[in-house]
Structure prediction request, 397 residues.
Amino acid sequence: MKAALVKKEYLTPFVLITSLFFLWGFARSILDVLNKHFQDAFEMTKASSALVQVSVYLAYFLMAIPAGLYINRYGYRRGVVFGLLLFAVGAFLFIPSDLAMSFAFFLVSLFVLGCGLVFLETAANPYAATLGDPRTAASRLNLAQSFNGLGCIFGPFIMGSILFAESSDSAPSIAVPYTVLGVFILLVALVFTRVKLPEIQQETKAEEKAPISGLWKHKGFTLGIIALLSYEIAEIAINSFFVNYVCEDGWMEPLQASALLSFGALALFMVARVIGSLVMSRIAAERVLCFCAVMTVIGTILVIANIGLASKIGLFACYAFEAIMFPTIFAISLKGLGAYTKRASSYLMMTPIGGAIGTYVMGYVADISTMAWAFTVPCAGYIIVLHYSLTVVQKRS
Prediction:
């Protein structure tokens, strides 16, 4: 008998939690436009502008464990509300940052916002994965993550329209869209204070006291955290310099590039994630991951080769075939962890620090060579994911 994707009694919590995926997708995708904007506004190198990503993803690295401990003690709902409040504070800090026009202050604002995002992701990812049969966890998480892709579509387009509008006579204000976002986030937080999310009990009192060293004995988890870190290096680095790549290639201007990122690359990403969720309800997630990893390696090699249309196709192939990687690796890594699930989730949510590393290194390589050659960085990340996928496929066989 085919397992239900979401249990009927968990349908409402699943819908509410899925809405959060949209919000952090929107917030994270804006960074890819800010990166190019700060290069122009402050006349800085690509490596320097990568500090935008570094500030946000450093928050993931530093706050993931505290977020996990908080959620473990106070539950998913309070974790979500606290994350939303931090998210809003970070957004409102853009007002004094914009008035001072201080890059350092902008980075502080982004760090606080990132702290809020890590609380949301640490709570929502494992929660969505457990709202149903364990056999459909990867498929269910991919479905929820599809709404993350929807948020990613709107982020670059809206911010790009504001920051790269050629008709504007004065410098655009970054504070305005972030202030509107902050108000909206507070309203969402209010909704979550009024609803009750059922806690998924995965451990007994004795298991709660299990030593953390036991977690690292699970090989599937330790390999998964390396693979997830490598994926983040690749995915975030490519997003961060998408606008740079298509502009420096003479393809289009920043305004058109941000629209292409939204309605081309990230729309393809979202559609591919939905398709991936359906495919994995029929084909083992490990095998789908393996195939997609092969295709992303081929895609980045085409970009590095810099051979015109084929390279552009390779770039979009990366978006199509990387789409299922994060939720699939995340779900596979949590399999069989039982009492360690919440704590494991907090460790897995430290992996976006890979985005900070990948973006900075890719920016540095681009500064000393070309944007095409800089794709060696995400290519290396995808190769590690490919090795992981081959390992898990072999283990399943």
